[in-house]
């Protein structure tokens, strides 16, 4: 809508795009032969989601007519949109929750064509720019992608009515639930029809008057690209033959799609139907549809058709695949081949370990005797010990790659193989033999799939990735090395094919992967690998020396216990260091030494039979002493004295002056780092850290001021620390606990208690509490008048409870009976305002209800005068 408004403001007319197409098909009927041509009435049908109100179908659209065998363009026809309709439904099945609204706009283009007889036949093609976005079974980041819809007219017999799909397009499919979807078709010639999943076509190729491929944008169609047409890029676990995953199949003779739906999303599904006459497939028609699978649920008993326990376990844990909230009861029953029940349960999840291998029947019944009852059955194939495996030999483009099945089984025999060689450029990269071969016409990584099975019903799937190259790979152990003549050296190569080394100077075994050589001068040897005519070449350079150069390096000094990497200068190939105990690896050129004592290391460097030896001394110097002192804990807001010690000749503190005993005042827990240096040879400082822990500020609390009556026990409750000291001792049951009980035998205008609160480190703080003691019975005092003038004296009409354990309410009414104030806290009163507005002088009625310390109810009412 934002785009619409913007275009209107700019004075342009919105051009609706014919994208977001959700599917289509094309079919025809034969009208007869006249004037030397065959005549056909053709219908193109396309679908668009009802959520694309700002989109339109192409009007007009181009239909391309091509030779079916050669792809030659015969002509293009511009066809106007014949009609458009909306179809929709919402399931009213009470056993479906969150049933979606399924809705499409359907566009129809109808036209007549006359074609001369052709032994090759014809292909009719329509293309659209874009499918809907975010299709779940396509590869990630595929971008927006077009669609191609076709119909085939056979050359013989040309008098043919095409198959026409007649199944409903309004089907509710719930994610991860069982479903069925009819792609059934009818044929006016009563030809045999055979159904299968096939690739959805995208739009790739040259388009007449529109170079770059694909139809034009906006509402402008363009002539379609010529065949061949290519499939959309499916994602992992999906393909043209499995658009909804491995749990969904299509019946080859009815066109009914059944199985367990994948997770929620949009999936492109294309069904091909072959017209078979007299045993010969004369034409193939296609229907392409983006199916919207939603998060609805069905109160059904839903299981996979089979549960394979063919690995290492005989335990089956299975749940109903429908998670509908309408399902409340379950009944499971497992039976063996003899019909004996081996397990039953009323749990939501069945969990059983089969005692013996075999094939078992699984039955699940849900909601017996309730609304939405259902039941289903499945098989448990329990034959552990089946493991698919395969290897491949050959990696060259346009050369056979040999695949060898290595699947093993404990029960039965391996007797089923279905290979998918992962060649995305064709739809014929399949085989059903045990050890097939395949020629790849393009380089790159190929994801090969093997579905293997055995004679007792086990099936499993294995994926391996192979790399197809333009030359066979050669793996060399080394490409550049030294030799000290007259020693002998073995060259080492690995790969598949025939090896040939050259030149053969001082070489034996030139036609093997690992020949032996004994050169007397620098030389480069070449290795050629021939894998069935696929060639590669690599080389090894050998340099000759008559001695080994070696310098272990200058002696050095390190801080005691520090690691140091020894770095000799040498052209040696092998190294041996001693003593080995303080080295991380005594057989490498640059070992790491860690020692606390001065040590002389000896290194021997070797090239075949030539060697050299040298030494290097590592002198160790101890770190200076550095002690930052013990960690300490201080009270909040107090200083701490640090005490450091060292035998070095200099020292530092982080962010402090150089003083061995500084005074610090941290606001929070802080680490202080002490570094000590000396000039005895260790270039690094010794470091120690002292942590000053600052305890949190004490929040001393003695309780709120209160009032009691003579004889009433008063529970005091102080908080904020670990130790408490009360004073004065008047009426208190104890002085060194947080919660003493106070009782009084005489009245008092106010006793001011002080409690000293102390934490774990001895830090202290004080809090105060005032208690008034009345000689009356328990009561609530309310003044007879108050003056809310803001002078801080008698500004509120407030209740003062004495001898009460609870004030249940204090309410004030004006002379019209309107409630103007209410409170449940003693000492909290009314300031003479209503919603911030000052009230006039006058008499106000108050009521109070409380519970005294003995548990008796107290009620009192009275009047008070507001004085201005």
From TrEMBL:
UniProt-listed CDD domains: PKD (cd00146)
PROSITE patterns: PKD
Chain ranges of the PKD domain: 322-367, 417-457
InterPro entries: Ig-like_fold, PKD/Chitinase_dom, PKD_dom, PKD_dom_sf, T9SS_type_B
Gene3D superfamilies: Immunoglobulins (2.60.40.10)
Pfam families attached to this UniProt entry: CHU_C, PKD_4
Protein's recorded name: PKD domain-containing protein
């Amino acid at each position: 809508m934002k785009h619409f408004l913007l275009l209107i403001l700019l004075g342009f007319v919105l051009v609706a795009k014919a994208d977001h197409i959700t599917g289509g098909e094309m079919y025809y009927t034969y009208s007869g032969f006249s004037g030397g041509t065959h005549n056909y009435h053709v219908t193109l049908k396309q679908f668009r989601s009802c959520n694309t109100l700002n989109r339109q179908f192409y009007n007009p659209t181009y239909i391309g007519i091509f030779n079916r065998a050669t792809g030659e363009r015969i002509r293009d026809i511009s066809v106007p949109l014949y009609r458009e309709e909306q179809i929709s439904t919402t399931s009213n099945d009470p056993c479906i929750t969150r049933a979606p609204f399924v809705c499409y706009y359907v566009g129809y283009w109808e036209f007549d064509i006359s074609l001369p007889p052709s032994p090759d036949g014809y292909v009719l093609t329509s293309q659209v720019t874009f499918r809907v976005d975010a299709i779940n079974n396509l590869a990630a980041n595929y971008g927006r992608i077009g669609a191609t819809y076709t119909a085939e007219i056979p050359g013989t017999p040309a008098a043919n009515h095409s198959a026409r799909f007649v199944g409903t397009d309004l089907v509710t499919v719930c994610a991860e639930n069982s479903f069925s979807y009819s792609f059934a078709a009818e044929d006016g010639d009563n030809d045999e029809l055979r159904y299968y999943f096939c690739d959805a076509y995208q739009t790739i190729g040259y388009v007449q008057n529109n170079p770059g491929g694909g139809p034009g944008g906006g509402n402008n169609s363009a002539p379609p690209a010529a065949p061949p047409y290519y499939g959309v890029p499916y994602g992992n676990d999906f393909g043209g033959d499995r658009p909804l995953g491995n749990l969904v199949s299509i019946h080859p003779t009815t066109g009914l799609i059944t199985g367990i739906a994948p997770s929620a999303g949009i999936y492109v599904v294309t069904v091909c139907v072959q017209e078979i006459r007299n045993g010969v497939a004369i034409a193939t028609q296609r229907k392409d549809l983006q199916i919207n699978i939603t998060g609805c649920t069905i109160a059904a008993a839903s299981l996979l058709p089979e549960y394979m326990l063919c690995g290492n376990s005989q335990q089956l844990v299975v749940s109903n695949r429908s998670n509908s909230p309408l399902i409340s009861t379950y009944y499971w029953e497992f039976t063996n081949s003899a019909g004996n029940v081996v397990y039953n349960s009323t749990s939501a999840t069945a969990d059983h370990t089969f005692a013996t291998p075999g094939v078992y029947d699984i039955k699940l019944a849900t909601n017996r005797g309730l609304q939405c009852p259902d039941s289903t059955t499945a098989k448990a194939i329990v034959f552990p010990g089946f493991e698919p495996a395969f290897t491949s030999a050959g990696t060259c483009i346009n050369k056979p790659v040999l695949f060898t099945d290595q699947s093993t089984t404990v029960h039965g025999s391996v007797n089923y193989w279905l290979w998918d060689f992962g060649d995305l450029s064709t739809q014929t990269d399949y085989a059903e033999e045990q050890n097939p071969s395949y020629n790849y016409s393009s380089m790159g990584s190929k994801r090969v799939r093997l579905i293997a099975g055995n004679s007792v019903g086990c099936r499993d799937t294995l994926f391996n990735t192979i790399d197809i190259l333009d030359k066979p790979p050669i793996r060399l152990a080394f490409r550049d090395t030294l030799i000290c003549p007259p020693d002998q050296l073995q060259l080492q190569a690995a790969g598949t094919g025939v090896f040939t080394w050259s030149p053969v100077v001082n070489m034996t075994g030139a036609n093997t992967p690992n020949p032996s050589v004994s050169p007397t001068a620098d030389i480069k040897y070449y290795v050629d690998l021939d894998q069935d005519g696929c060639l590669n070449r690599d080389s090894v350079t050998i340099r000759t020396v008559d001695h080994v150069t070696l310098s272990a390096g200058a002696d050095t000094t390190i801080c005691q216990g520090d690691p140091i990497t020894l770095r000799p200068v040498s052209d040696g190939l092998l190294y041996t260091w001693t003593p080995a105990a303080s080295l991380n690896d005594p057989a490498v050129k640059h070992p790491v030494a860690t020692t606390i004592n001065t040590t002389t290391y000896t290194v021997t460097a070797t090239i075949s039979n030539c060697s050299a030896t040298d030494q290097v001394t590592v002198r160790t110097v101890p770190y200076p002493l550095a002690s930052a002192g013990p960690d300490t804990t201080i009270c909040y807001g107090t200083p701490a004295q640090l005490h450091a010690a060292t035998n070095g000749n200099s020292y530092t503190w982080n962010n402090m002056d150089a003083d061995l005993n500084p005074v610090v005042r941290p606001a929070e827990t802080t680490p202080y780092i002490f570094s000590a240096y000396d000039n005895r040879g260790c270039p690094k400082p010794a470091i120690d850290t002292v942590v000053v822990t600052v305890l949190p500020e004490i929040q001393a609390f003695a309780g709120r001021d209160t009032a009691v009556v003579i004889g009433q026990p008063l529970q005091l409750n102080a908080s904020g620390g670990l130790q408490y000291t009360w004073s004065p001792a008047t009426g208190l049951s104890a002085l060194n606990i947080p919660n003493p009980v106070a009782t009084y035998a005489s009245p008092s205008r106010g006793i001011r208690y002080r409690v000293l609160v102390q934490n774990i480190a001895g830090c202290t703080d004080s809090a105060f509490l005032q208690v008034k003691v009345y000689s009356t019975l328990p009561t609530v005092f309310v003044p007879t008048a108050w003056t809310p003038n803001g002078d801080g004296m008698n500004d509120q009409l407030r209740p003062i409870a004495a001898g009460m354990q609870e004030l249940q309410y204090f309410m004030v009414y004006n002379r019209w009976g309107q409630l103007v104030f209410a409170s449940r806290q003693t000492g909290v009163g009314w300031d003479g305002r209503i919603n911030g507005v000052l009230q006039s002088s006058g008499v106000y009625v108050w009521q109070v209800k409380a519970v005294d310390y003995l548990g008796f109810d107290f009620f009192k009412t009275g009047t008070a005068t507001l004085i201005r």
